[in-house]
Amino acid sequence: MTGPLSSVDRPVSYIGKSVPRPNAKRLLAGRGRYVDDIRLPRLAHAAFLRCPYAHARLVSLDIAGAARAPGVVRVVTAKDLAGRYEPWVGTLTHFKGMKSAPQHPLVRERATWQGEPVVAVVAESRALAEDAVALIDIVWEELPPLTDMQAVLEPGAAPLHAELGDNLCFARTIDAGTVDAAFAAADCVVEEAYSFARHTGVCLEPRSILADFDPAAGSLTVHYSSQAPHMMKEIFARHFRLPESAVRVICNDVGGSYGVKIHVYPDEMTTVAIAVMLGRPVKFIADRLESFVSDIHAREHRIKARMALAKDGTIAALTIDDVTGIGPYSTYPRTSVVEGNQVIGLAGSWYRCRNYRAQLRVAFQTKPPTTQYRAVGHPIATAVTEALVDRAAGALGLDPVELRRRNLIPDDAYPWTTASGLKFEKLSQQASLAKLLTLIDYDGLRREQAALRPRGVYRGIGIACFVELTNPGPAFYGVGGAPISSQDGCTIRLDPGGSVTCATGVTEQGQGTETMVAQIVASTLSVALDHVRVVTGDTERTPYGGGTWASRGCGIGGEAALQGALALKANILALAGAMLQADPAALDLAGGWVVDRDGGNRRIGLDEVGRAAYFRGDTLPPGVQPELVATRHYMPREYPFAFTNGVQASYLELDVETGFVKLLKHWVVEDCGRVVNPLLVEEQIRGGVVQGIGGALFEECIYDDRGQLLNGTLADYLVPMAGEMPDIEVAHVETPTAESALGAKGAGEAGTGGAPGAILNAVNDALTPFKVRVTAQPISPRRVLEALGKA
Amino acid sequence: MSETVAVRLTVNGATVERDVQPRLNLVDFLRDELGLTGTHWSCEHGACGACTVRVDGEIVRGCLVFAVQLDGATVETVEGLTDSGALAELQAAFHVRNAVQCGYCTPAMLLTADALLRRDPDPSRETIRAALSANYCRCTGYHAIVDAVADAARERAKRP
Known about the structure:
The complex is a heterodimer. Chain A is α+β, with helices and mostly antiparallel strands.
């Protein structure tokens, strides 16, 4: 860096330092406070009867036995809730032509997935509520399920929602450049069909809500495991017809989220409706079995892709055809089409290719809703693109790294607009790839691989370049009518003793949000980190903001914190100047003191400034009104998104007799702009990689033809375990965004976005001697053996 | 279901007497009867390990043990083991390595790691990974946890 030091480059700065999270100590001592840890007087507990069929008509319902059961407070059906809420529809206006049916808290006449909530029992304990659920008499008429997403789109297929006419939720096409001409002139064409299974988030803390309505005050307080408290405040107010001012949403510790806890769920809406109806607190915690059939699912794509290349390896054209199944309703308020939209928006976008055609079709089916889950669309776009690149390299006899090097957007070519219309401010694809090759000793790995093959050891090296969409602006959701804020605020106050209290709209689910904010504020005000307290996750105590999603916490919340701290610093220096009869411009802050900007002589402690402001106003010059609090908000205005980039590599060994994959090592080079805390960023990347590996190798919600989930327990649904995971090495290239003073982009999803592509390529690299490939994820041992003709 | 059984056990050094329903499992007993919310439940199948606690010196799945089985037993949870300092090196190492994100799996992870270090004070990285496979974590990717357990083993070796 040249030029004068900015506030983030000061000599005494926490920015760029691996500071451990102060709030982690509570969690390590078992002193976390999750929703299920809250005990309130007169607390009632909800349990749900859920539809056991994928598609069924409710014939009759008798709740009398349940209502008489011990400890039961109330048994609630759809009839009891009628008129007590506004239904919701998961569409946004900027997705042209998209449609979805209105959704209700409880099934009224027809259930459309196995797991849809039908009856709620509220009792003195969860166990008693479950006992009563078992006493409900219910008769169903099973209707034909709609499971296969391609079949439901065929002409003449019966529509799931008659009023919608067909089962197509949304379609979009992109046609850029001269695709047909490029294919006609190509020296080499590769094509493949890929499939990506439906999987789910498996937050170890299940979805949790405790709704408390005070009829006397007319106020609703919701203790909630959520990423977006302000959004949910807006939604509860809107759908229960309460004044916005009467709703408070509090998110204390959140036990994992990853996109799962940011959607409107019918069982949670039912819980709120019942709390309002009963005027007492009601808690609902999803158990693991109902989580599998009621949490959002993700992915489920079938993709056909083709790539045209010239002899020299230049990618001439790319086409993608994506069909994705989203269940019976588009989720609210974000919709379920963003995943597919991002698949076709992102595929191939890190290469120079200008000829691009894509088609997306989003289908309704009778399975749980799918929607945004960590790295929305990215893993699919990356895996398909990068798998085709490896195929093309094989066909052309080029090294896969060399093919990438020839096609990646050059680092000096920015700003760049992709064929699909995305705007990249500045990326570092070439530098990142170069750094990765050094990090992994690519040539050494290739030599080792070659040396082992004659001994029957089949190792594979897989590379995947990627981009990640972070820091979204208002064009992402707000423009379509969703109550989703792209801006975030931070309020920062100097307390009398010289410590600092911050309240921020971005939220904490373990990423380190509070630490990141504290680092920025402590550095800007030059106070010790342990003098800074950060408050998050309470709509009554924090400035309005979108919360934490789409990797926006640091880039947007961090910039708001920086600007707020700079504003507070100006206020402090103005007051100190008045007290010292000095020009505020000649003063600065250092180590908890007001100092002379030149020379750094200590003039007055922050504690003294605080005391004078709050307790000894009599000592201040006439007319001075101290203002030791400042609030600033920030939203990106220039670019719709701050794109990041990176490249991952996987090194693995394939057992060609059993089909098992042993992951030996994984590497990530990523560029999230300015790194505020390397420790936290690296842990975001590593955790993200492992979730990506989960989707690539293990995780699948397996459904039968009747739409029944076959592996809905954590004993049957596989998630990555410590023993199967590799060490993951992370390195950075830093290309700060020029849009903010902080320069940070997001880092939360890069790991998940890139890992499945790297794993797929590594497995296929290991299979090269057998001239077979896998194209379906998860890459289970069975699928490997099928590819080898051994299943 | 409403019949109860009297049990008397020691939890974190204190004697506890309760009349419990036979169906009440240990994790619900700790959380709902004793307010010890540091122990979490997640899968209720014995797969994820989030409910791990120590019974008579050995770690068990709190979701697979009933309170009525524990008459006369000694139970230790993250709260008690924090107060006694038994987990201190692990907690410090987890903090420094940021081997904790959302924190939901963390108390149980600490107990599993502690059990490993008590039977193998100098475990290899592979041994640590194998032992920790009893506990799921969805946030960290495990790498930092493995690092932290290795660090804690070195610190524990310095204990007098």
